[in-house]
Specification:
Belongs to the NADH:flavin oxidoreductase/NADH oxidase family. The protein is α/β, with parallel strands linked by helices. Helices cover 31% and strands 16% of the residues. The chain has a domain at 3-17 and 55-62 and 95-321: TIM Barrel (Alpha-Beta Barrel). The protein is built from 11 helices and 14 strands. It has an 8-stranded parallel barrel. A two-stranded antiparallel sheet has the order 1-2.
Length: 373
């Protein structure tokens, strides 16, 4: 049997297989509260060894896109309880991804129409967010110019993550993942090209890592380190992220810092594939040597690529993203060699209702199995 389909012990949480459903923003909740369709969507995909939810803003300030289900009010927490109950009833395991977008936001989604916050004041100029183009009309817009968080405000954001994690546990999640990848707030602090601060959260590699590590430590104190994972995107270049001096040294240091902590996992998002151009040769092996806990790999994986990476021993679990949109039974399809359905990209974001969300059939229910046989 492929190693991909073997059980895995995730810090005492027993996973049925090594397939992870990667976090994917779907912008499907008009009031930012998970609903019955949200519960159905995740329950349909519960045969994954582990589901990681779409990013859940930990505060109104942390939001960058309209219609994203969040986790900072009791009503939102109650909505997520429906989701976790539905997933657990199907035998699945589910972590909440906690999210703050930082500068990748627009004033129209911010409290009091204020400026988004970041490590500094440099705006993103080559990407778009989904916000209010004008009152009553939503659409893609350039992010607004951010303001730098004060030193004291960094501590307040850490507490926003703690409060959201506590709600996640009360909502029945098996753990949380901190979104520190893909050019969002923590990434903005980690990069010396963006972080030009002169306080204790800027300057040296250790100072730029402080915000993320203090957040992980605070979460571990609040809910236990074995229930806390973190997602990072080494050498990421999306959403205006640029190369920065000492980048390889910074990621080597980060691997060591993670290894000093008790974590559920580290989730490496390579954005394309693990062997993609831009990731230095030998990076995966070096990270694995420095960090001995559970490693999840994400980024363009197929079953064959997943098998190859698991055989190398550098990754423990493999995350699949887009394939899960049109294939709620992805595990079964890969395990049996059944063909994968193609998703309708026009329904990835911003469509309210079941279309392109919960209306994709399983291979067996579609009648395709009879045709194959």
């Amino acid at each position: 049997m492929s190693k991909l389909f073997t059980p895995y012990d995730l810090s005492g949480l027993q996973l049925a297989n090594r397939v992870v459903m990667a976090p994917m923003t779907r912008t499907r909740t008009p009031e930012n509260i998970p609903n019955d369709l949200t519960a159905l969507y995740y329950a349909q995909r519960a045969s994954a060894g582990l589901i990681i939810t779409e990013g859940l803003p930990v505060s109104e300030e942390g939001r960058g896109y309209l219609y994203t289900p969040s986790l900072y009010t009791d009503e939102q927490m109650q909505g997520w309880r429906k989701v976790t109950d539905a997933v657990h009833e199907k035998g699945g395991k589910i972590f909440a991804q906690l999210w703050h977008v930082g500068r990748l936001s627009h004033y129209s989604t911010q409290p009091g129409n204020g400026a988004p916050v970041s490590s500094g004041e440099e705006p993103a100029t080559s990407t778009m967010v989904y916000a209010w183009v004008e009152p009553g009309k939503e659409g893609p817009v350039l992010p607004s110019k951010p303001r730098a968080l004060s030193t004291a405000e960094v501590g307040r954001v850490i507490q926003d993550f703690v409060a959201s994690a506590r709600r996640a546990m009360e909502a029945g999640f098996d753990g949380v993942e901190v979104m520190a990848a893909n050019a969002f707030l923590f990434d903005q602090f980690l990069s010396s090209a963006m972080n030009t601060r002169t306080d204790k959260y800027g300057g040296s590699i250790a100072n730029r890592q402080r915000f993320l590590l203090e957040t992980l430590d605070a979460l571990a104190d609040a809910i236990g380190g074995k229930k806390v994972g973190v997602r990072v995107s080494p050498f990421g270049r999306i959403y205006d992220m640029e190369a920065f001096e000492g980048e390889e040294e910074a990621w080597a240091s980060m691997a060591g810092a993670f290894n000093e902590r008790t974590l559920a996992f580290v989730h490496l998002n390579y954005q394309t594939t693990i062997s993609a151009a831009g990731t230095p040769a030998g990076f995966g092996a070096a990270f694995r040597k420095a960090y001995r806990g559970t490693l999840i790999g994400a980024g363009g994986f197929t079953k064959d690529l997943a098998d190859a990476e698991l055989a190398k021993g550098e990754l423990d679990l493999i995350a699949f993203g887009t394939a899960y949109i049109a294939n709620p039974d992805l595990v079964e399809r890969m395990k049996n060699g059944w063909p994968l359905a193609e998703p309708d990209r026009s329904t990835f974001y911003g469509v309210i209702g079941a279309k392109g969300y919960t209306d994709y059939p399983t291979f067996e229910s579609s009648g395709s199995r009879a045709a194959v046989n």
